[in-house]
Amino acid sequence: MTWFDGVDGWTRVCPLVCLEVERGVAALVEDEQVALVRTADGSVHAVSHHDPVSGANVMARGLIGSATVAGREVATLISPMYKESYDLATGRGVSNPAVSLRTWDVRIEEGWVEVRSRRDETEAG
């Protein structure tokens, strides 16, 4: 359940204080299950809650970590099922580049986490 469907495609999901650092939480946004993750640096990411390898909706229960990709450190989410890791910013598979997670834009407005579909992904689909 979402709290508020706003203008310009942004959907208000939950208060930022409800997201624990280094933990994921699942939310329903525009009829899709989304995993929201708040990392240690305070960033909030939104990726598909659906694990493309196992087919289960479990990504919010994954492990948050980091990996070196192309010489830079990136925040990652590791599936609790088969331990595939994904770049939280891009959704690209780190351990298996053949799979990826859908990602959403995220912003914090007045203490609320808001998400919207990324235009390039919705236009391509």
How do the strands and helices of this protein lay out in sequence?
Layout: E1 4-5, E2 11-15, E3 23-29, E4 32-38, E5 44-48, E6 63-69, E7 72-78, E8 85-87, E9 103-109, E10 112-117, H1 119-124
Antiparallel strand pairs: 1-2, 2-10, 3-4, 4-5, 5-9, 6-7, 7-8, 9-10
Question: What's the quick description here?
Answer:
The protein has 125 residues and is mostly beta strands. It has one helix at residues 119-124, and strands at residues 4-5, 11-15, 23-29, 32-38, 44-48, 63-69, 72-78, 85-87, 103-109, 112-117. The strands form two sheets. The chain has a seven-stranded antiparallel beta sheet. Strands 6-7-8 form a three-stranded antiparallel beta sheet, with no helix packed on it.
Features:
single chain, 125 residues, mainly beta, seven-stranded antiparallel β-sheet, three-stranded antiparallel β-sheet, 1 helix, 45% strand, globular
